[in-house]
Specification:
With 158 residues, the chain is of the alpha+beta class. Helix content is 20%, strand content 39%. It has a seven-stranded antiparallel sheet. The longest helix is centred in the C-terminal third of the chain and has 15 residues.
Length: 158
């Protein structure tokens, strides 16, 4: 596969500002996640600025520790049009390391009560040293579609 990103798109019957507010709330991310890996927000403050760090408790049966934590750095914050973050880890000394992959949601308003949501996972900046031991993407294409359907359910009930 030469492509270094995957995307999925879904239209939701909710205004873009409402969708954005849900995405900017880390406490909703476990309900949105299509893999079941995201467990809960460690940092619960809303995402409000580029450079903001938020941590998530994770679980993956193939991870060396099973349960682990990610540190995410907001890279894109353009309410209510786009939000995205780099995912990485925090070392014991507090140093943050990012692997080069980014999650991004792009929101296109389709009138006052509908939004086209595109979720993209991009690993084009992942260095070869990481590609030697991690396969990209680390999930099937249905993950993005599942996540968008979970998002649609969540925003329609809020």
């Amino acid at each position: 596969m030469n492509q270094e990103n995957v995307s999925a798109t879904l239209t939701v019957a909710v205004p873009a500002a409402k969708v954005f507010a849900v995405l900017a709330d880390p406490t909703t991310h476990s309900a949105i996640d299509g893999t079941g890996w995201v467990q809960e927000a460690v940092d619960r403050a809303p995402l409000t600025e580029v450079g903001q760090i938020f941590r998530m408790a994770m679980y993956h049966p193939n991870h060396p520790d099973g349960a682990y934590q990610t540190a995410n750095k907001v890279q894109v914050l353009d309410p209510p049009h786009a939000i995205g973050w780099l995912t990485g880890t925090e070392k014991d000394d507090g140093h943050l390391e990012f692997g080069g992959w980014i999650w991004r949601y792009d929101l296109a308003p389709l009138g006052p009560s509908a939004t086209e949501v595109t979720l993209t996972y991009d690993w084009s900046a992942v260095p070869q040293s990481i590609r030697e031991y991690l396969q990209f993407p680390p999930f099937g294409p249905e993950h993005l579609t599942n996540s968008l359907h979970h998002l649609a359910e969540l925003v329609s009930t809020r």
